[in-house]
Design brief:
transmembrane helix, 320 residues, MCP_dom_sf, 10 helices, SLC25A32-like, mainly alpha
Length: 320
């Protein structure tokens, strides 16, 4: 593959990732809100799509994409750190673990802001004037300013200072093991598939197709997601705004969150929103896979059109 082809494929993968993030982000928002529901009996009677409808009806379309821009920054930073350490070290396991830890520490503040923006609702709007300077306070009859990045940062800093931006880092650091779990699940599945193909006796079907590899990777990823999902819930609980109505809804740290969730919600609390997360994960994996070929063709067309325009402009300069 030449440099041009590599660039086009890279842009296609990035484009597919962006499209997948944009399409599935409303599910991420719903999932974040499901994760921070803190009552034992607070089980939704409607699914993710109905929850999205209620968010749009009560808070507007924009709330489905709260934190979308900083989430893109977090993804880009995480991918950049991962690729840097992957190239820096020869040992893949060492590189993956180190890249994961450094990435968590670097992107946790952004992740926290995203969680605040995703879980912010109109119920908390009256408190937003606390984040404004006295000269900026507006009459109660006027709609408060949108809860954006600046207000989220002010809110976090006002609660716990600079260290508050690393709330939830511990469970996220533990989640670095997720790729290892995924690999442990993927390898046996791949070996079993190859074995079945050899035993089938059909020479044409002995090679594993890209679709089959994708399906195995997706299945392994889902398994790893189920195993590590409680850590994701704990992280969201720690990063979301702490409610003041009940002491049992306030978490001092990871162990305190685990203890209170077990005592007041039971083990179900650690898996709130799992079905939404599974749907979002499948879509996020499938969309880039399905779109890559079309995006590559589209990138080829853009490059061809750009080259054609450049040549026309170049020859026009020569002959004028």
């Amino acid at each position: 593959m030449g440099d041009a082809d590599a660039l086009i494929n890279g842009l296609a993968v990035a484009g597919g990732g962006f499209i997948a993030q944009f399409i599935t982000y409303p599910l991420q928002t719903v999932n974040a809100r499901q994760q921070v529901e803190r009552n034992r009996n607070e089980r939704r009677k409607f699914g993710a799509l109905e929850q999205m409808y209620h968010i749009v009806e009560q808070e507007g379309w924009g709330r489905l994409y709260g934190g979308f821009a900083p989430s893109l920054v977090a993804i880009a930073t995480s991918e950049g750190v991962h690729n840097y350490f992957y190239q820096k070290f020869r040992n893949k396991a060492e590189a993956t673990a180190l890249a994961g830890c450094v990435s968590v520490l670097m992107t946790n503040p952004i992740s926290l802001v995203v969680t605040r923006m995703q879980t912010h609702t109109k119920k908390s709007q009256p408190n937003r004037t606390d984040l404004l300077s006295p000269e900026d306070v507006i009459p109660s009859a006027v709609e408060p300013p949108p809860f954006g990045v600046n207000l989220a940062i002010q809110e976090v800093y006002g609660e716990r200072g600079v260290l508050g931006f690393w709330r939830g880092a511990l469970p996220t650091l533990i989640m670095v093991i997720k790729p290892s779990i995924q690999f442990m699940l993927y390898e046996p599945l791949l070996k079993e598939l190859k074995k079945r193909k050899r035993l089938s006796g059909k020479k044409r079907n002995r090679n594993v197709t890209s679709l089959e590899i994708f399906l195995l990777e997706t299945l392994a990823n889902l398994g790893a997601t189920v195993v590590t999902y409680p850590l994701l819930v704990i992280k969201s609980r720690l990063q979301a705004k702490q409610t003041v109505e009940h002491e049992r809804h306030q978490y001092k740290g990871t162990t305190d969150a685990i203890d209170k969730m077990i005592r007041h919600e039971g083990w179900y609390g650690f898996y709130k929103g799992l079905s939404t997360k599974i749907v979002q994960s499948v879509l996020a994996a499938a969309l880039p896979f399905m779109l890559k070929e079309k995006l590559v063709k589209g990138a080829d067309w853009v490059v061809l059109q750009a080259a054609t325009l450049f040549l026309k402009f170049f020859f026009a300069l020569i002959y004028t």
